[in-house]
Amino acid sequence: MSPGTRDAGTWFRHPHDVLGRVYAVSVTVRVAMAVHAILINLIFMVPLVHNDVGVMVVCLVMALWTVIVSVLLRRPRRRRGWVFGADLAVTVGVVLATTLVAGDVDVPLTLAAYWGGGCAVYAAILVSTRWGLIQAVIVSAAYFAVPPFFTARRIDVVVLIIASTFCLGALMSQFRETLREQQSERDRSAALAERERLARIVHDGALQVLALVEREGPSLGPRGMRLASLARESESQLRALLLDREVGDESVTPLVDLAAALDKYQSARVTVSTMAGQVMVPRFVVDEVEATLTEALNNVQRHAGPDASTWVLLDQESDDEVILWVRDNGVGMDSDAVTDASDRGRLGIRDSIVGRMSAIHGSAILKSSPGLGAEWELRFPVDTGE
Predict the structure, then answer these.
(1) pLDDT band at 23 (very low <50, low <70, confident <90, very high)
(2) ∠ CA(106), CA(107), CA(110), 5° rounding?
(3) Of 149, 168, 293, 313, whose CB is crowded by the most CB atoms within 10 A?
(4) What pLDDT sits at residue 259?
């Protein structure tokens, strides 16, 4: 394919505009209707009326506006409400101009002819069926406002405009839904492929190391046996995760009570306090918050000292944000220790806590000083999609 042919075929298409091909066809049809209306006016209307200049001016307006609006709507970022409003206004103006140009002469159609339905078709294809039908009804009212008002030909044109607008709008709605389903399936396939890639990496690395610790740990005494037990548990969790091939669709995920989900973390050393009411959030948000809390509690167990206790407080200061505080009375740490741990590749804070909060568009702030314990302030939005 030559460069010229490629450019001609994609003139009305944007690389990210999935409706480009459909729009190109609608432009072709509207241009054809403009040519049809202009020829009808020049051949039949000019001899019939006394205002030849008016007919030619209206034809010029139709030709120029067809080009202008088609160029304006060429790119998705230019498809703004004012463009469709201007298109409707010009179309209605052309239809009503028939009265000024024709005078006392009864015109069986209007100067716009079938071109008048173009604005409704554009709105139905690029916006929605509803907006297309609204514009079709307004244009139809303009057709009937021109003497001799209700004629058989005008009724035929109005029925054609409304029916074609509805059909095209309904087809485009179905087309968009099909595209969304296809994109969702592509995303799921990509997620599964990425999971399989990570599974290979984990299998060749982390699982092999855990298996080695599990085998060699008992020979190191009681502490080695504990390491072997932890390695066995971690290996089991990793294998279960790698074998799970289900990729959830977050758009249809049911809502879950976050407060009830956090209650199970109550223990002798962990005190959980939540609100009396429910905090309904999507399932994937609960999963990320629980994983973050688990990492924070594990950090307390490993680094805060043998006698450290933890307090977990869930609160909601506004309708669109939830706050989770995780505080302990352990040995604490300074900021340099956190930075040093991250630099040495210990990613518990950066990835397991801060990273998870960022994934759900939240934030994580650590407040800690040596000897004064540590406190996490986790904030994340509540977006139920309502």
Answers:
(1) confident
(2) 145
(3) 293
(4) 86
CA distance 74 to 114: 22
Q: What is the 3-state secondary structure (H, E, C) of the chain?
A: CCHHHHHHHCCCCCCCCCCHHHHHHHHHHHHHHHHHHHHHHHHHHHHHCCCHHHHHHHHHHHHHHHHHHHHHCCCHHHCCHHHHHHHHHHHHHHHHHHHHHHCCCCCCCCCCHHHHHHHHHHHHHHCCHHHHHHHHHHHHHHHHCCCCCCCHHHHHHHHHHHHHHHHHHHHHHHHHHHHHHHHHHHHHHHHHHHHHHHHHHHHHCHHHHHHHHHHHHHHHCHHHHHHHHHHHHHHHHHHHHHHCCCCCCHHHCCEEEHHHHHHCCCCCCEEEECCCCCCEEEHHHHHHHHHHHHHHHHHHHHHCCCCCCEEEEEEEEECCEEEEEEEECCCCCCHHHHHHHHHCCCCHHHHHHHHHHHHCCCEEEEEECCCCCEEEEEEEECCCCC
Q: Does the pLDDT of residue 173 top 70, yes or no?
A: yes
What is the model's pLDDT at position 281?
86
Q: Which residue has the tokens 């202009």?
A: 38
Measured CA to CA, the distance from residue 145 to residue 164 in angstroms comes to 21
Q: Above pLDDT 90, what percent of the chain?
A: 25
Tokens of 214: 């599990």
CA nearest 119: which of 35, 26, 230, 47?
A: 26
Phi and psi (nearest 5°) for 326? -125, 110
> Residue 269 has which token pair?
């050393």
CA distance 104 to 147: 9
Structure tokens at 344: 């040495």
Please state, in angstroms and rounded to a whole number, the distance separating the CA atoms of residues 75 and 13.
7
- Nearest CA to 98 out of 144, 136, 146 is that of 146
